[in-house]
Amino acid sequence: MGQGLSCRGSHEHGLFRAVQHGDLQTVSILLKTHPSLIHRTTVYDHHSPLHIAAANGQIQVLSRLLDGSANPDVLNRQKQTPLMLAAMHGKIDCVEKLLEAGANVLMFDVCHGRTCLHYAAYYGHSSCLKAILSAAQSSPVAASWGFSRFVNIRDGRGATPLHLAARQRRSECVHTLLCSGALVCASTSRYGCPGSTPLHLAAKGGSLDCIRELLAWGADRLQRDASGRIAYVVALKHKHGACAALLNIASAQPLVWPSSLKIISELNPEAKLLLEQALMDANKEREKNILKGSPYSLPSPAHSDQMDDNISEVSETELCCICFEQVCTIEVQDCGHQMCAQCTLTLCCHNKANTSTSNPTPPVCPFCRSAISKLMVIKIETHDDIDQDGTTDTTCFKPSKSRKFRNMNEGSSSSFKGLSSFGKMSGRSSGMIASENECIDDKPQ
After folding, report:
1. CA–CA gap between residue 155 and residue 159 (Å, rounded)
2. Which of 109, 40, 116, 103 is nearest to 79 (CA)?
3. What is the pLDDT of residue 372?
């Protein structure tokens, strides 16, 4: 911290310095001799020992203070709690300890009317953000609001945590918030330009990664702020050419995380991650085509040739029977049929849920027409994965040939022929693409 450490006595001054530097022995001695020191605060900022410990990541001292009956929700001059300062400075151990001690996640400060969730998103501390969201799901205070309302909580200027993360180029936090139910098209009231969506703010910050995430989750390129501007115009104004090219409504529409996948009752986390990667890879192929020949052309990954070589060596019996290019990585749990992640995603994009009905139907397997209720990542053991102690590693994404032959035989049905026209979504994966690295000024909005 370093500020406001002047105090009303030598014992207080000694305690604050010991807390700041993590001198647990001195802290313990002073609190044992003068127990009332635990409630003292600095003169100007009114920081308690708990605030100082949380902001400096002194987890042992913080634990000692909490054991000494320190209030986890004590407020400083700006009505900030120790949890807010720990989230602001990215001190994950302190965040977890304070949450364990029952710290209130719904406290608002007086500077900006923000919560600990806003601070974690603004400063890009994704681990702290995840810890707060996890605690909020079981917190009685957040439960009284509802988790969805908490994720979309607004600060004093009408900004949600997603708005702040998008403006500050925090792509990992943007992804976490979107997966937790953040509203992708919510508008601000006074933060930035009134009526700004997260996409407007990402365009202003010039973050391709944030724009990718927002577009993949259904952000509307046509939505306007209070000044009548779409995100494309905002990107042009701030001279973020590559972002503007992707946001241009004349460019190809990006693929969006399909609504039909959201209604599958059990989407294995590993399968979800694989499908999300397939979606991002497909959109990056779209980006390459949009930016091709422009000053903002994105470089091809150095390892793409190696990936192509690996694919060419795969046996035909291991290839997806829809596109015949990718190796099968996704299995339909009930019937056991297998597809590659790209074709699974395309299948769900093709069979979008009907939003006009209260009970939308899930996508169906293209081979047997049974409803898909659960998707799993294929995990087949190989001889190379057998350890010396006889155990096996089953994390290899290699399909079984017998099941592949069954897929090929059943693939001659009319359902397979119907899928063949759109099975190839993005071709072979081209790997990760470097994003634009443009600096922005961190100025008050």
Report:
1. 5
2. 109
3. 78
Q: Tell me the C-alpha distance between 84 and 110, whole Å.
A: 12
Place of tokens 């403006």: 167
Handedness of CA 209, 214, 220, 226 (dihedral sign): negative
**Which has more confidence, 310 or 413?**
310
The phi and psi torsions of 289 (rounded to 5 degrees) equal: -70, -40
Report pLDDT digits (tens) over 238-288: 999 999 999 999 988 888 877 666 656 556 778 778 887 888 888 888 888
Query: 319-352+363-379+395-426: which CATH architecture?
Result: 2-Layer Sandwich (3.30)
CATH topology for 138-219+227-256 is 1.25.40
Q: Which residues contact 109 (CB under 8 A, 6 or more apart)?
A: 78, 79, 80, 84
Closest CA to 290 of 253, 256, 245, 250: 245
Q: Is the distance from CB of 367 to CB of 300 less than 8 angstroms?
A: no
Cut 0.90: pTM above it: no
Topology classification of domain 1-103: 1.25.40
Q: Residue 145 has which token pair?
A: 């609001």
The domain ranges of the chain are 1-103, 138-219+227-256, 319-352+363-379+395-426
Integer-rounded Cα radius of gyration of the chain:
26
**Domain 1-103 matches domain 138-219+227-256 at the CATH topology level:** yes
Rounded distance between C-alpha atoms, residue 287 and residue 402, angstroms? 38
Mean pLDDT over residues 70-89, rounded?
96
Helices (H), 220-367: 231-237, 241-247, 259-262, 269-291, 304-312, 341-350
Q: Do residues 415 and 366 make contact, with C-beta atoms less than 8 angstroms apart?
A: yes
